Amino acid sequence: MSNEGSPKTARRITRLSAVNNENVVESSKTCNFKPLTINDLVYGNQTMSLDELISSFPGRRAQIIELISLLGPLNSAMFPIFVYGGSSTGKTSIILNIFRHLRRPFVYSSCITCYSPRLLFESILNQLMLHRKSESNGYSSAKRCEKPSDFVNSLREALSTVIGNLNGNVEKAGSKKAAGQQPKGKVVYLIFDNLDLVRGWDKSSNILPLLFNLHDVLRMTEVGLIFISNSSPDMYYADTGFIEPFPVYFPDYSEDDLRQILMKNQVNTNLYSSFLDVVLRPFCRITRRADELSTALLPLFKKYCEPLGDLGAIPNEEMKRKLFGHLQKHIAPSLNDTFRVSSELTSGGLLSKDNNKRKGTTKKLGANESSDEIEFYISTSAKYLLISAFLASRNPATLDASLFDSTGGLDNRKRKRKSSGKSLEQKETAEQELLMKGPGTFPLERLVAIFQCLTSVAEYSPDEEGQENSGGIGESGNSGLMSGVLLQLSSLCNSNFITKGGSCPLEGSTRYRSNIPEDMALKVARSLKFPLSKYLYRR
Amino acid sequence: MGLKNPAEEAVALLRSRLCNSNFIFTLFSDSPDSNYSKLKYIISSSVTEACNNSVLLLGPRGCGKIAVLELVLEDLLKEFPNMISVIKLNGLLHSDDNCALKEISKQLCLEHELLFSKLASSDDNSQFMIAMLRECGLAHKTVIFVLDEFDLFAQGKQRLLYSLLDAMQSVTSQAVVIGVSCRLDADQLLEKRVRSRFSHRKLLFLPLLREDMQRILEHCLLLPTDSGLPHEYVADFNSKLLNILADKKFKEIIDTLFNTDSTFNHLLRFLFSAVCNMNMKPGFLSLENFKAALSSIQRQPKLECLKDCSILELYILVCMKRLEVREQEVCNFNSIMEEYKSIHDSFQTSDYYARTVCRRAFEHLLQRELISFLDNRGHGQSIEFRPVKLLISWHELHQGLKSYRSCPAILYKLVEREG
């Protein structure tokens, strides 16, 4: 990903990994890390000048200057700062790099990795107490701390020792000049990233007011608090409210900023800028997120370069026109599958609240749209199971008996077709209902029954794949088939083709739901040569 | 350190003043009818007369309840050395009774140089507290309990409040309980047995008055002449500042600030921002600094968010608004897509994208919190079927589209029509 904007690449380098990288060479020889010192509370090795900082984040000049002025000169007190803005606008990386520029000590903890209050508290304390989890201490934290009251007490202690050490440093630095590595000033900053996730925690009604009031609870002027969040301050409600931190807004990049970001790290800037002239505007109508754009534009740029022999060439007007003519027909279709590629790459970061449960669905639904082949391999019996689940979700349970006769004969099945005006109306409301409610749920028994019907109709048994006429579909095959089904079902559930819902309050059994769209079910059926449409109840 | 820029030093001074909320309230300590004097009278009388007392400090957030209390306690600790010990609890941290008792005995131990045992049970701690109260009463020492976020202590069984107030009923003890809360009905939250033991003294803290504004501004921003700063610089700075304060435009800025939120804290944050914006080269505050501060403190997150949306996302919002106006009972992604298609069919817009693309835009909107799911149930279901609702009003949407730089005319028309 050569054309990726620096906000994303820089984000990957958390301070923790930066610290670890320094020690990689060392750790290959001996397995011991250097004990952490107070100098490890600053970010990165080399300093960064303000100009470098501003030029490495195009379109963020105003925010950088505002943040630096809010942090103020050395050792000055500050109000808590609340940095907010959409994702991939460079909040985290800019803050971290500002601290790299200022060389002030800070503690960074992200609420993504610290997903519970205890982990958050312990991560902050570990960093402040210069404690590193290792084999020798059994990967335990410096202090076990679950309750907010314990946290505040320990935090106060830890902060005062750190501030004491920093004070000592300041005095020493006055005497000798070797202060390149040392943190500057005696104010420690606590950075809380991804604060919006805290709202989804169990005890969020306790933790959020605590974090926002931490400044007043601690009452230490040598501590600065910085919150980073995706959602704006008005989305944090609390019963009795809290003192609002000082807001700093990171707007989404404008088209010009995006151009600058995408132009970074390009080999042939002239060529790429003429490419962006053509492409950027239509794509900006869909999304203005730098990360999504860079992945979407990558294949398109390859297309753009296809007619070119020499990639280093500087395009003139005529060539530009020719290249544009070549690309024009690709733009519109690629707009429409912009997210087919990126859905697999970025859906992980989306909708983080209950992301885990939905991630697989997003992937799957985005993944198979247009091609005729199914893009993954599953066994034949799993395909049948998938189809049966699909049917169980779509067809009303009352019609099962008429659709799947016990003898399994297709000829016995008679479908009534009504075409009066009233039934048309009904059909419309039923369609509406399907759109609004989605696929229905079904118990395991029904799924297995349908599965058995289908497999017997297709004269198929999972034990005897390929030997169609051996006639062994008797009672003996059934037990083996059943155990296979349960295994297959659990793996289909894991891959999110079928979701396991909560248990039904009346029956008490687990209910399932099939998530696949109709065209995909048809595709699977086609690969089996199975007449799915015959069994699908059309209202 | 003599080479330091005086402007930088001045900024550091001003910032430390503004961030320490006690500073602003020292202004009110001399007037006889201020909360400061009242509170000081209540506490000092119970110290001198050796009696028990309880009082509630009520008022909205950011009006200086804790700041005034701290100033009072600071003064009293100087006035009556060795006669007062202060125990501070916070409802956010110690709303759990056992935890609160533990913290009380910990602080008592610290205060009286005793050894605190972490293993002590909550019963031990409670007995220890009562014994300590008696001992302190016999030694004519007043224990002051400060309960910040008092309303949170009133959750649950209120065992702590009961045992504390009950212990104070005896003649020997000598304690003051000060509850601090931003809920004006905090005393109504108490159980009957607790309420009857509570003396219903309340001090109400109000947001700042317009008349005091000039005094406060001068108090906060004027540089002192007796600090280490060069005299000419201080004189220059102060005269320029007084000019600004007298300016008509500045008064307008203060009025707009005052109209939205008139708490002390809001003013402090405004001044903090102005001081941060100060240009170091001339080193003086200017009217522009205050203007910039006002705009950075008064944000409209929803409108900002709308400005960030892509055009496709705006389409989806408009579709949702149309569905909402039509009073369809629930709306989900599928119904939005139908509306989107119908708009496209009737107006032949140039922005018609595939379903996956729209779905991604829909997810962006969810992430921006311009729309949200109606319920938290149905995790198993895919996003398309879950009902959603719009979190912005028609007015905001209209305003947002109006200020959007290149909003398609058709969208604007559609919204206008719905209004």
TrEMBL record, chain A:
Keywords from UniProt, A to Z, are: ATP-binding, DNA replication, Nucleotide-binding, Nucleus
User: From its record, what is one biological process in GO terms?
Assistant: DNA replication
Q: Which InterPro entries match?
A: AAA_16, ORC5, ORC5_C, ORC5_lid, P-loop_NTPase
Compartments reported by the entry:
Nucleus
The answer to keyword Ion transport applying to this record is: no
**Region Disordered, residue ranges:** 403-429
Question: Source organism's superkingdom?
Answer: Eukaryota
| Chief subcellular location | nucleus
* Pfam short name (any one): ORC5_lid
Instruction: Spell out the Gene3D superfamilies in the cross-references.
Output: P-loop containing nucleotide triphosphate hydrolases
Nucleotide-binding among keywords: yes
Q: Which residues form the ORC5 lid domain?
A: 272-324
Orc1-like AAA ATPase domain boundaries = 57-216
By sequence similarity, the record places it as follows: Belongs to the ORC5 family.
What is the protein name stated in its UniProt record?
Answer: Origin recognition complex subunit 5
Per the UniProt record, the source organism is Cinchona calisaya
UniProtKB/TrEMBL annotation, chain B:
What is the predominant subcellular site recorded for this chain? nucleus
* InterPro entries per the UniProt record, alphabetical: ATPase_AAA_core, ORC4, ORC4_C, P-loop_NTPase
In its UniProt record, a GO molecular function of this protein is: DNA binding
One Pfam family cited in the UniProt record for this chain: ORC4_C
Residue ranges annotated for the Origin recognition complex subunit 4 C-terminal domain, each copy included: 216-400
Give the stretches traversing the membrane: none
Q: Any keyword Hydrolase?
A: no
Report the residue ranges that make up the ATPase AAA-type core domain in this protein: 55-201
List GO terms (cellular component aspect): nucleus
| Tagged with keyword Nucleus | yes
Matches recorded under Gene3D superfamilies: P-loop containing nucleotide triphosphate hydrolases (3.40.50.300)
Q: Which UniProt keywords apply?
A: ATP-binding, DNA replication, DNA-binding, Nucleotide-binding, Nucleus
Subcellular compartments: Nucleus
Biological-process GO terms, alphabetical? DNA replication
Checking PANTHER family in the record gives:
ORIGIN RECOGNITION COMPLEX SUBUNIT 4
- Which family is it part of? Belongs to the ORC4 family.
Per its database record, what is this protein's job? Component of the origin recognition complex (ORC) that binds origins of replication. DNA-binding is ATP-dependent. The specific DNA sequences that define origins of replication have not been identified yet. ORC is required to assemble the pre-replication complex necessary to initiate DNA replication.
Protein's name according to its UniProt entry: Origin of replication complex subunit 4
What organism does the record attribute this protein to? Cinchona calisaya
